Amino acid sequence: MELSIKWAGNPNITVAVKAFGLKATIQAVDLQVFLAPRITLKPLVPSFPCFAKIFVSLMDKPHVDFGLKLLGADVMSIPGLYRFVQDTIKNQVASMYLWPRTLEVVVMDAAKAMKKPVGILHVNVLRAQKLRKKDLMGKADPYVKLKLMDDSLPSKKTTVKKSNLNPEWNEEFKLVVTDPESQALVLDVYDWEQVGRHEKMGMNIIHLKDLIPDEPTLLTLELLKNLDRNDAQNDKLRGQLVTEVTYKPFKEDDFPEVSENSKEVEKAPEGTPSGGGLLVVTIHEAQDLEGKHHTNPYVRITFRGEEKKTKHIKKSRDPRWEEEFQFVCEEPPVSDKMHLEVRSRPPSIGIYSKENLGYVIISLSDVVTNKRINEKYHLIDSKNGRIQVELQWKPS
């Protein structure tokens, strides 16, 4: 977009000047600004608001006109001063934003916005065997954390098996895949501790590019200390983890094109549990948030025991996230509720802790019936805070 902007006004701008031991008060009057900016929205992405960055530059030197008054006198009447001040301002502004130099405003991470779900990874954590003893009593309380690399979502966890070095889990998980060529499944085995930090017993990874689509793969993984092949500690026996993984990519016909006037219901991608579906939650923005000591908001989403979080935005009462989260459901959540809590993260340096800026509990029966809801909700425990949330239900 190439625009023509003209603005004129009589602002009350007063500047105190001190030089060579002398003080003076100067007032700007009759300010006029004429600009010809070029505004570029790029790159285009499939997520709202459909562009990742805003670039602003000037097509020509801006025209700035104003007068200066000093103790009731017109400073600009001094010969040569008017042109000197005008040229100085034009050159300073032009040096910063005159094309091809641009002011870049980042709206969202373009790389993440372009990565849409392409499949679902089914993971069955079967068992571990011959785990290395961790405490003095020769016992361990193991559990497994699993997540995909390059995924900002929280890790999923198995249950804790008390006092067992050969635990059996047989627990299934589903993870949304965005890039099977680069992503890998990270599996960490921890020893649960009632007090203190949980101790890591070992880990390993599974590269998705090594999996054959739609074919279950049974793997017995040797637990390692880390992924450094040159680390001698990886030669120590730490036990094994047995898992079964299946990568099910979405098919082309899993993404039907629905016109604006079409009443066809968008279906969940193939691989979604039969009789269930995909619940898509988009956290758009919030308004009028206010913390007692700080306002660096983020949203925590809790649904069926699973927790997900948005990024936190520094010093904003009106944050915009535009982040999407997905929940794979075994059955329609007609009787379920989703808990959204807006919280504030304290500054890295300070004495204050996290603050609750308000919350809302959303009944999901309407979204199952209507397939899509996009509404603003007033936050409970907040004076004026509101949050805009979009929910979509895609049945299998």
From TrEMBL:
InterPro entries: C2_dom (IPR000008), C2_domain_sf (IPR035892), SMP_LBD (IPR031468), Synaptotagmin_plant (IPR045050)
Composition skew (Basic and acidic residues), residue ranges: 260-269
Principal location: membrane
Top-level lineage group: Eukaryota
Gene Ontology annotations for the cellular component aspect, listed alphabetically: endoplasmic reticulum; membrane
Keyword Membrane: yes
Domain SMP-LTD: 1-108
GO molecular function: lipid binding; metal ion binding
Signal peptide stretch: none
Membrane topology of this protein: Single-pass membrane protein
Family annotation (PROSITE patterns): C2, SMP
Residue ranges constituting the C2 domain according to the UniProt record: 99-221, 259-377
SUPFAM superfamilies: C2 domain (Calcium/lipid-binding domain, CaLB) (SSF49562)
Keywords, in A-Z order: Calcium, Lipid transport, Lipid-binding, Membrane, Metal-binding, Repeat, Transmembrane, Transmembrane helix, Transport
Transmembrane listed as a keyword: yes
Family: Belongs to the synaptotagmin family.
Protein name, entry field: Synaptotagmin-2
Organism of origin: Dendrobium catenatum
Gene: SYT2
